[in-house]
Amino acid sequence: xxxxxxxxxxxxxxxxxxxxxxxxxxxxxxxxxxxxxxxxxxxxxxxxxxxxxxxxxxxxxxxxxxxxxx
Length: 70
Prior knowledge:
Helices cover 30% and strands 19% of the residues.
């Protein structure tokens, strides 16, 4: 009950929106992560999920990738 998020949070180094997709995937695979925070100028812009990168690479074209929210 008294457990705080700060006690379990992963202090993963974030990636920038301009970082290559392969760099994000490499970091995820190295650290066995499913999600990485995307930070620009100290502000959280969102997260990138490994499944989304895998889909992107599988379809090889952004136009063919099913995007959530569209």
